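Lab notebook, bench 4. Still working through the backlog of constructs that have no structural model yet. Next entry is a single chain of 96 residues. Request: give me the structure tokens for it.
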Amino acid sequence: MLRELDPLLHSQLRLAVVSILMSLDEADFVYLRNKTESTAGNLSVQLDKLSAAGYVSTKRVIEGKKTRTLCRMTSKGKKAFEDYVEALKVYLNVKK
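Model written out:
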């Protein structure tokens, strides 16, 4: 039986962001923007959606005169990503 893919993670940019964050403790906004080659506005909107779902937490820190936004996966987000990958394996008929 095919499992439904999480529509929140199925978006290309959101999936890219979550995939990057899964391998890091945290990443700042500029790093994510550069790695995903997205615009600041689009990345901001997608991070807001992931944050609203409880998949990603964001924290603003001040360093000197600059503000950095740090992003990290939440336990809920990690579980959602792992479920998404498992669902993909079913679609691809990948054996465990």
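Notes after review: The radius of gyration is 14 Å. The domain at 7-92 is CATH 1.10.10.10 (Arc Repressor Mutant, subunit A). Flag for follow-up if needed.
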